[in-house]
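Handout for the seminar on molecular recognition.
Each group receives one record of this type.
Step one: identify the two inputs.
Step two: read the structure output and locate the region that could contact uridine-5'-diphosphate-xylopyranose.
Step three: write two sentences on what you found, then compare them with the reference statements printed after the record.
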Amino acid sequence: MTLIKNICCIGAGYVGGPTMAVIAKKNPHIKVTIVDINAERIAAWNDKDLTKLPIYEPGLAAIVKETRNKNLFFSTDINTAIAESEMIFISVNTPTKTYGKGKGMAADLKYIELCARNIADVATTDKIVVEKSTLPVRTAEAIKSILHNTGNHINFHILSNPEFLAEGTAIEDLLNPDRVLIGGDSEEAIESLAKIYGAWVPQQRILRTNLWSSELSKLTANAFLAQRISSINAISELCELTGANVNEVAKAIGMDSRIGSKFLKASVGFGGSCFQKDILNLVYIARTYHLNEVADYWEQVILMNDHQKRRFSDRLIKTLYNTVSGKKIALLGWAFKKDTNDTRESAAIYVADHLLSEQARVSVYDPKVSSVKIQSDLNYLNTRTEDENLKLVQTVSNPYEAAQDAHAIAIMTEWDEFKDYDWQKIYKSMKKPAFIFDGRNILEKSKMEAIGFEYFAIGQ
Ligand code: UDX
Ligand code: UDX
């Protein structure tokens, strides 16, 4: 078993940052260096002011404070970090391709390949290379081939070690994982990594599999989770028409131990960097193998999610007498879920875009998301010019300002603080009738109606 004294992680993002911080905390004898091509991001990780870390996760700042510049380092010097380490995690992003073959479906592996080539160029000693990014099945084959054809007689072992952390609870998920999955074909390399996790994870929770099972398990886990949300969201629409209440249905089926209670919260639609990307990926792989029924089956999870987002904004517009033109609509929440500043694939982006296309004026408040991010999310869609987005979308620093003179409030993220607002005060400041569209079912219908709101939730 290789004794690991130095770890390098390429990619200081939502996955690399928290994962390495926890590994460093639990393995004080290992030097962990996180590198990134983005110098600004590295500078933010090194900022003395811990509120300026590039990623917000409960509990993260405290661990960074404890370990940074002791055995956790952030750097842009990728080559040195690779050269010094016995183990290298690849934790760069693998977005859905926006060009060429597989556009809109396949994962773009160019960053992964760049990393592999970078490692091949720089390495002078044996390395264990760990895929942390979510990758299509058999990506390890490509990495292997690049590394093994360098001709410099270095031994490379490839492991797949997908993360199962959810944003907002990343630190907790890392500290108490249901399981850690390590796929590989070298028992020695697998045990080197198992030892690192063994510093805090019980051995029976560390699963060893072959490379391909590990890669496919990650895609499968995300597909199953997303499928549950799309399933309950499909039922939510039926509830609205039949008088059933989706919360009651979810509770009733969730108490069946075969089904379980988690991931049954009806919502305006799932977001985040993983679900859509990973399912598209699965669909693409299935199509590549000509498994059209398999591809169609999983694709429907995405189509249902698109429908749920669209249905939410359609209902809002319809309720506001079929027009939102010139009306102010307040969006509470922009992040794809609470306790994170991540907005990738957030339902709020699509709902806002639809409302803007209907000429609404949108005012956004999110406790952790900046106006720069909100504008760039909208600009990325390319529906209208940057100037128009700037003109039509206002970002404010408190919810009361967002609601002032608004015709409707749409709740897009389930931030806890939304429950404790002075809703009486908000009601008074709004245009009447004052509408609330609760895309997360977090407010109490009876309480809101007692204040005077016209309240609409999902599936009720
Ligand atoms: C990403 C993927 O979204 C996820 O599927 C995978 O499981 C892990 O990687 P995340 O950490 O959330 O997750 O991505 P992101 O926050 O974008 O971080 C990736 C980082 O890699 C960025 O900071 C980027 O600058 C960096 N990067 C990218 C490199 O350092 N080198 C590259 O060649 C490409
Ligand atoms: C997910 C997986 O949970 C994690 O294991 C994987 O490693 C990465 O992808 P993440 O995207 O961070 O994590 O968040 P998650 O908590 O899974 O939520 C995804 C989306 O589904 C969010 O928009 C959330 O609001 C939504 N959701 C979740 C629902 O709408 N209803 C639910 O019941 C649960």
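Reference statements: Residues 163-167, 222, 225, 229, 263-265, 267, 270-272, 274-275, 336-337 surround uridine-5'-diphosphate-xylopyranose (ligand 2) (CB under 6 Å). The two ends are 57 Å apart (CA to CA).
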